[in-house]
Amino acid sequence: MPDLNAVLAKLNDRLLRLEGELFVLRSLARASLTAGDEQAVRMRKLVEAARIALADEATRPLDKPTRKYVEAASALVEELLVEPTQAKPLFTVIDGGRR
Fold first, then answer.
1. Cα–Cα dist 81/83, whole Å
2. Distances (CA, A) of 85 to 33, 50, 88
3. Are 77 and 51 in contact (CB under 8 A)?
4. Per residue in 56-94, pLDDT tens?
5. This prediction's pTM
6. What's the rounded Cα separation, in Å, for the pair 14 and 8?
7. What is the CB-side half-sphere exposure of residue 65 using CA atoms within 13 A?
C-alpha cells in the first residue's frame, strides 16, 4: 500500500495545478467576453447556453460529488456573466493642476 502522505501530496499537487488552470481559463473567458467584438457576442451566447444547460442539469437527481461540480460550474458561469465594473482613474487633474 502506498504511503498516505505521498498520495495526499500527489492529490494536492493536482488540485493546485487545476486551480491554476481554472484561473487562467477564467481570465481568458473574461477577456474574450469583454472584448466588445463579434467574438465576444458569440462567447456570451455560449456562456448563457451553458448557464441554461447547468440549470437543467441541477434539476436532475445527482449524487453529491456531481452536484458539487454542477454548483461550482454554475457559480463560475454566473461570475462570468456579471458585467465588470469600469476602472476608476488613478488621479484626476483639476484645472490643469494650477490650484
1. 6
2. 13, 23, 9
3. yes
4. 998 999 888 888 888 888 998 888 888 776 666 667 767
5. 0.63
6. 10
7. 0
